[in-house]
Structures are given as C-alpha cells and as structure tokens.
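Narrative of activities, Objective 1.

The group set out to show that a structural description can be obtained from nothing but a protein's sequence at a throughput compatible with the screening campaign. Below is one input-output pair from the validation batch, recorded exactly as produced.
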Amino acid sequence: MPDTTPTETPFEADRPMSPREMARWQNERIKDTWRVFRIMSEFVEGFERLGSVGPSVSVFGSARTPEGTPHYDLGVAVGRELAERGYAVITGGGPGIMQAANEGARAGGGVSVGLNIALPHEQHVNPYVDPEHDLTFEFFFVRKTMFVKYAQGYIVLPGGFGTMDELFESLTLIQTRKAARFPVVLVGTAYWSGLLDWIRSTLLDGGFISPEDPDLLVLTDDPAEAVDVIDRFCAEAGISPNF
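Output recorded for this entry:
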C-alpha cells in the first residue's frame, strides 16, 4: 500500500530530519508547486475557450436521470428553449439531465457547451456537446468558476449532491455580493417545493438568512417561463443573446 502518512516539515520536526525524510518533504513541496501551474492552466484554457461563447445559461441537474423519463424530457425542453432564444447552453457535460440540456441545445440549433470533470469513475462527455466547446477539468473549483463567470443565469432541474452544491454556491455568491444578482430558476415544483418550504420555515424563521433571500429563487414547471426570467434579466442588464 502507498504511504499516506502526512509529511512532517523541517520546521515541525522535533529532531533533525534524515536525508530520506528531507527528500520526501522536498518532493511533496515540488508537487504542490506544480499543482499551482496545473490550476492556472485550467483557468487560462477555460477563459480563452469560453470568452467568445457570448450570453449563456448554465443548466444543472442529475447525472443519473435516464433518457425518456419526464425529468430528462424537461431538460431537453429547457435546452431547446434557451437555444431558440439565442443563449448558449452550459452544462457539466455528463449524462442525465446534463445530456438532456445539451441535446435540446443541439436540437434548437444553438451553442452546446460541456464542462466535464475528471472523476474516478471516468465520467465521459455526452455526445451532444459541441466538440469545440468540450472542456474537461481536474479541479471542481475551477469548473464552478466557469459556470458562474460565463452565465447570465442558472436553471436548476432535479438532482443530487452535485446539483445542490451548484445551487447553493450560486445563492452564496449572490447573497454575499461576490456575483451579480443573476436569476436562479428551479424547474420542477414537485421536486423543489419541499426545499423551498424548509428554507422559509427553518432558515428564514430561524434567522439564518435575510427576509429577502428566498426571493433569490424562482420556481416553475414551464421551460418557457424559466427562460422568460433570463430574458427579463438580460433586457434590464442590457445583455443581448448570441443571435
């Protein structure tokens, strides 16, 4: 088995390190230094390749949603509606609802972007991502930066931990004013209503969030209505669709 014991630094050691211990510590330092450059390269590639995409919307949802199910079909409808109104569709590039939104973007004749993540179980990019807009990231935090930096809004369909992470990341950025108050639309009232009830009855009533914070979320079942919210924001902000 590989040695996973944390490497003690010369400054923490209670005795002089042996040459072997010093070599191990130095190797770890080199790995950390090069990791900085790997992170930087992912930011640079993401900025260069997404900077010309134009007004976009990030769509999130479960990777586990099978094709032909109501949630999958809803994802296709959302992607198509966005594309037909001129927005590039950005997803995590994987299967499930991500694939559905990319499929809809392709069907609507729009730009289909996939920001894939390298995972131990080897998530592969779905076939509906435009080859020139297919990016794979090693670091989650770089990938999440791209979702926010190049999107005029979020549309969030039913999903699990990853979807919740992306949802609450967006709310935190808006709440703390680290990002503009871009629209965050939840699609699927049956799925999301319980969460919204908990936000109001537990977070708001308990004083954990401000009275206006629940208004950061819009809930609908209608893909057209979801994109209407994005349209209104873009009109007010003076942002034009891609075409």
